[in-house]
Amino acid sequence: MQPRLEAEHLFKVFGRRPDEAVERVRKGADRDDLRGDGTTAAVIDASFRVEEGEIFVVMGLSGSGKSTLLRMLNGLLEPTAGRVLFDGRDLTALTDRELRKLRSERISMVFQHFALFPHRSVRDNAAYGLEVQGVPRAERERRADEALALCGLAGWEKAWPDELSGGMQQRVGLARALATDADLLLMDESFSALDPLIRRDMQDQLLELQKTLRKTIVFITHDLNEAMRLGDRIAVMRDGRIVQTGTAEDILLRPANDYVASFIQDVDRSRVLTAAAVMDTEPRGDEADCGCETAAPDTPFTELCALSARLTHPVAVLDAGRTLVGVVPRQRLVGVLGDEHGEATACDRDGGKVTGRA
Fold first, then answer.
1. Which residue pairs from 28-33 have beta carbons closer than 8 angstroms and sit at least 24 positions apart in sequence?
2. Where are the domains of the chain?
3. Dist CA 274 CA 325 (whole Å)
4. From 69's CA, which of 147, 281, 329, 357 has a CA 20 to 30 Å away?
5. What string of DSSP letters covers 250-281?
């Protein structure tokens, strides 16, 4: 099946003779080598696919190249080398007019700093993308109001941006992207300017919307916990390169290199992992026959600990058809929470909570 979005060996180089710089990188030069000549390789040989209905998170520290990468995905920046394919169409081959039409109708962006017009009402801000498309006023106001309601802002249509909190202003930005019914949402550090509690609320809002809308989303963040919470898959960037792509479980349990391993060392695994990530997929076959409590593949790790504490045998994991797909021995739970020195945090048998060292 064709992916909705695909990046093929993307490079973005700023400075003199960028094409020559790409060739140097392909032959083994690194960022520092180029920097000495006044050239910056912002993105180096980035390739990935984003499936329809997927939240694909690009995560990295400041200067890793993630925002530059995002801007190549909708043609705001032209790649020095490589291609971007959207529904199989090569964006790098489109004219400026074709790109503007595509961005106005099929690709929307949600920015970090809201980007609301202070002289426009909440409704008119949400309807702005439709106005650019030339949609009649009555229709664009109807669609804007529907998008605002989806984002929890029903009743605020006539308010002004400065009457809203930061979180509410970001909801208007999200509603503006949704109102156009774009196929692809690009979200550039969209929640990072918000206070922690509001930020988590916006993450909840996005996940709730995604259950029904099933948009294709590329989400940029420097926050690993946010990436783990939102991403169906995550691409980790360092110095312009994608160093690992995978699910949150893949990255937590199988880091590709020492950099990724050090990056994830402070993540609370119990908030990310599920039964499917830690179960033994070759059970004996009789674990589900005892009539005891069982788990589902998406049962959170913390619930597995509590369940394991009540049982005297491995936890059976059953799929939606009640077929046994795996088991989770208690020692597996302990091992997953072990640190790099071999010490491990155990599940307390009395309450199933993570309480001490094994």
1. 30/239, 31/239, 31/240
2. 52-268, 271-357
3. 14
4. 147
5. HHHHS-SSHHHHHHTTTS-GGGT-BHHHH-BS
Question: Residue range 327-349: average pLDDT?
Answer: 60
Secondary structure E strands in 208-247: 216-221, 233-238, 241-246
What global pTM score does this model have? Answer: 0.83
pLDDT reported for residue 62: 87
Looking only at the bridges linking them, the beta strands covering 184-188 and 40-50 are unpaired
Q: Does residue 204 carry a pLDDT above 50?
A: yes
- 19-23, 312-316, 350-354: range with lowest mean pLDDT: 350-354
Confidence (pLDDT) at 4: 93
How many CB atoms are closer than 10 A to CB 251?
27
Backbone angles phi, psi at 352, to 5 degrees: 75, 20
CATH 3.40.50.300 fits 52-268, yes or no: yes
Structure tokens at 39: 């050239």
The CATH number of domain 271-357, selected from 3.40.710, 3.40.1000, 3.30.300, 3.90.1280: 3.90.1280
| Interatomic CA distance for residues 91 and 309, integer angstroms | 54
> Residue 301: in which H helix or E strand, if any?
helix 301-310
Cα 138 to Cα 120: distance, rounded to the nearest angstrom:
16
